[in-house]
Amino acid sequence: MNRLKPLLIATHAVVPLLWAANAYPIERSDTFQIHGFLSQALIVTDDNNFFGSSSDDNGSLEYTELGLNASLRPYNHLLVAGQILSRKAGNYSDGWQPKLDYGVVDYQLIADERRVLGVQLGRFKNPFGFYNQTRDAPSTRPGILLPQSIYFDRSRSLGLASDGLSLYDEERLSNGTIYLQGGVGIPQINSDAEISLSPSNPSLEGKLSTIGQILYSHDGGRINAALSMAQVRSDYQSRQNHQVKGEFVFQPIILSLQYNAENWTLTTEYEYQKRELKDFQVSPYNGKANGESLYVQYQYRFSSRWQGLLRYDYTVTDRSDPNGRRYAAAGQGEDYSRFAKDMTVGVQWKATPNWRFQAELHNVNGTAWLPRQDNEAKDTDQYWNMLLLQTSFSF
Question: Residue 299's pLDDT is what?
C-alpha cells in the first residue's frame, strides 16, 4: 500500500483536470488543451546523498515528477491556464503533495503583427534565466538536472513562482524579438528554502517581492540574450527563539547568453546574488553575503533522437571567502560546503516523440548545493560522484 500511495495522490490531483477536459462543449474544443508529463529517476552516488539515500547499495528512486496542465481561450484576448504538480525529491516534508505549480488569467491588451502586450493575474512562474519558467517539464530541460549553481533544487521554492500580477510585452523587430516581463507578488517559499537557509530551520513567510526580465531573440532564436533581476523578500522567524525575528532578502542578477547552430547549442549564464538578514534585534543575526555562479553548457545533436551534453558548473556562496576557510575557522561548518564545482557528461535518447531516456554523470568538488534534508553535514565528503538515469513521458 505504501508504494501505491504516491500514485493514488497523483491520481486525485489529475482527475479533476481530466474531467474538466470532457466537460467543455464541443464548440470550445479547438481552444482547450491539456498536456502532462511523468518521470522517474534512479540516482546513485559514491558519497553524500542526493534526493534520498542515493549512496546506499541500491541507489535512490526518490525523484519522481507528475504534472498536468490545461489551458482554455474563451475569448480571443483571454487565456486561462494552470498546472498541477506532484513531485518527490528526497526527504522533503511536502513530497508527493499535489500543488498548483502555476495558474493564471492572461489578458492581452494589444495583439497584432508587431506587438503583444498583456497582463497575467494569479500564480505565475518567475522569469528567471532561460529555464525557470519551464523547469518542471522534463522535456524542456537540457539534462536530467538543470545547472544547480543557478537553478538550485535544494531551495527551489525561493525563486520558482509568485502570487500576484505580471506584465509582459513582445516587440517584433525586423530580424529579432524583444521580450519584456515584470511581476509583483508574494513568493511561494516552502520548507526546502527554510532548511537550506539555516540548519536551525527557521520559519520564512514570503513578502511582496519583484522580478523582471528582458530577453532578445535574434534571427528566429539563433542567438538569445537575457538579463533577469529580482528582489525576493520574506519574514524570518526562529523556531527555537520567538524573539529572534527579522527579514531575509535575496537579490539575484542573471546574465544569459545562448547560440543555436544546426547541430549544437552553446549556453552560458552568470549569476551575482546578494543575500541579507536584517532588522534583527539580536545583532549576530544581521549580516550579508554576496555569492556568484557560472555554468557553460554544450549540447550536440547527433540525430533527431540522440543528443549529448557537456557542462561545467561553478558556484561560491560568499565571494569574499570563496574557499570557505574563514567560515570553517569560525566553527560554522566545513569549508567545502561553501562552494561546488561540477563537471557533467550526459546523453539523451528520444525513443518516440513522447518517451525519452537520459543518463548523466556528475563529478563534483564541494557541497554548496547538496540538499541538507538528505545529509548530515558532518558526514559529507568534499569529492563525490553521481550517476542519474531517468525515463520520462509527455503528452
Answer: 98
